[in-house]
């Protein structure tokens, strides 16, 4: 069974950067689409990014386009989310999710991933 563990969260000032990791165990993550989501206090879950199993397709939410970059390291069985130019509104718990069937498509953003991590807190504040 695929297990996902996020790490790399923390507190940073506006304009700073963080790199989140989504490490997989149990199965090869390169067979899965991986998505990143976040939930801010009092708000609904928001789509952040996704990357296809091949790494050839990526997608980003409008609020993070141009600032966040998703990538894969197949040797480490890990997916990363590089977050630059962070803003206070980026604060929240970030989750990664994986699924073999859900595609990463710029035309249809699905959220019915089968495996989810426990989340990592990101706080952007001065």
What is the count of DSSP helices, taking H or I runs of 4+ residues? 0
Strand content: over 45%
Give me the count of strands: 11
User: What quaternary form is this?
Assistant: single chain
What is the rounded distance between the termini?
A: 40 Å
Describe the structure.
This protein is mainly β and 126 residues long. Helix content is 0%, strand content 47%. The protein has strands spanning 3-7, 10-12, 18-25, 33-39, 46-51, 58-60, 68-73, 78-83, 92-99, 115-116, 120-124. Strands 2, 4, 5, 6, 9, 10 and 11 form a 7-stranded mixed beta sheet that branches. β5 (46-51) and β6 form a beta hairpin. The protein starts with a strand and ends with a strand. The relative contact order is 0.31.
How do the strands and helices of this protein lay out in sequence?
Layout lengths: L2 E5 L2 E3 L5 E8 L7 E7 L6 E6 L6 E3 L7 E6 L4 E6 L8 E8 L15 E2 L3 E5 L2
Structure summary:
This protein is mostly beta strands and 126 residues long. The protein has no helices and eleven strands.
């Amino acid at each position: 069974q695929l297990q996902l563990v996020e790490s790399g969260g923390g507190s940073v000032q506006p304009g700073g950067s963080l790199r989140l990791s989504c490490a997989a165990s149990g199965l090869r993550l390169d067979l899965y689409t991986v998505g990143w989501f976040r939930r801010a206090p009092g708000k609904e879950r928001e789509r952040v990014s996704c990357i296809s199993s091949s790494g050839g397709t990526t997608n980003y939410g409008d609020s993070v386009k141009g600032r966040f970059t998703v990538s894969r390291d197949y040797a480490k069985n890990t997916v990363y989310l590089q977050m630059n130019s962070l803003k206070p509104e980026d604060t929240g718990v970030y989750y990664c999710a994986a699924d073999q069937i859900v595609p990463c498509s710029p035309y249809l953003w699905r959220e019915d991933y089968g495996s989810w991590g426990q989340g990592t807190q990101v706080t952007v504040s001065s």
